[in-house]
Amino acid sequence: MNSDIDKHANAPAQYLTFMLGGESFGIGIMAIKEIIEFGSVTDVPMMPASIRGVINLRGAVVPVMDLAARFGRPPAVPGKRTCIVIVELDLEGERQVTGVVVDAVSAVLDIAAAEIEPAPSFGTRIRSDFIAGMGKVNGKFVILLNVEQVLRLEGLPGLAGDALSSTDLAAA
User: Fold this and answer.
1) What pLDDT does residue 155 have?
2) Which of 24, 32, 40, 124 ranks highest by number of CB atoms within 10 Å?
3) In angstroms, rounded to a whole number, what is the distance separating the alpha carbons of residues 42 and 64?
4) What one-character-per-residue DSSP string does 95-112 give?
């Protein structure tokens, strides 16, 4: 089983669940900074399709990732319930704040470790390293994302250079 899940084997973990392309996904609530209405995203030239652009979040330049495009699907078409989920991670000793575009936020759910299955090795339409596990909720599965892998900006196709930072985006 995934070590991310094993760490909290006895206690239920909380996940923010959301819809994307008709599927239900979840991100551990500890990584969520806030949820904002989808608004004006500034396009940044020469960025990969999965980087929608940047937003100004109280004076900070925050890159916005289109999760649908990151998963190899057509970019999300904003609707009435489209949101940007602001995720804050500590990656390799650096704080990384990234917005992710989702179709609609669903709920915060407690999912017990016993209700989380390992990521399948086949049958999903996204990379297996993006999946931390499959949570069972009311007889349905929620794809629990390995948010560190999904939001890793290094190595994105079409990205000039090895790394992308907020400083790089601000200068673009």
Assistant:
1) 53
2) 32
3) 9
4) EEEEEEEESEEEEEEEE-
Contact, 156 vs 51, CB < 8 A? yes
CA pair distance 157, 161, nearest whole angstrom: 10
Q: Residue 59 gets which letter from DSSP?
A: T
pLDDT at 169: 46
Return all residues near 99 (Cβ < 8 A) that are at least 6 apart.
Answer: 36, 55, 57, 62, 63, 64, 65, 84, 85, 86, 87
Can you read off the two tokens belonging to residue 56? 């100004």
125 pLDDT above the threshold of 80: no
State the Cα torsion 43-86-146-134 to the nearest 10°. Answer: -110
State residue 93's pLDDT score.
83
Longest Cα separation, the chain: 47
**pTM to 2 decimal places:** 0.80
Tokens 């989808």, located at residue = 38
Distance of alpha carbon 65 from alpha carbon 46, whole angstroms: 14
Structural domains of the chain in order of their starting residue, each with its CATH number: 3-149+164-168 (2.40.50.180)
Residue 82 CB contacts under 8 Å (≥ 6 apart), including other chains: 38, 76, 101, 102, 103, 104
Judged against a pLDDT cut of 80, whether residue 72 lies above it is answered with yes
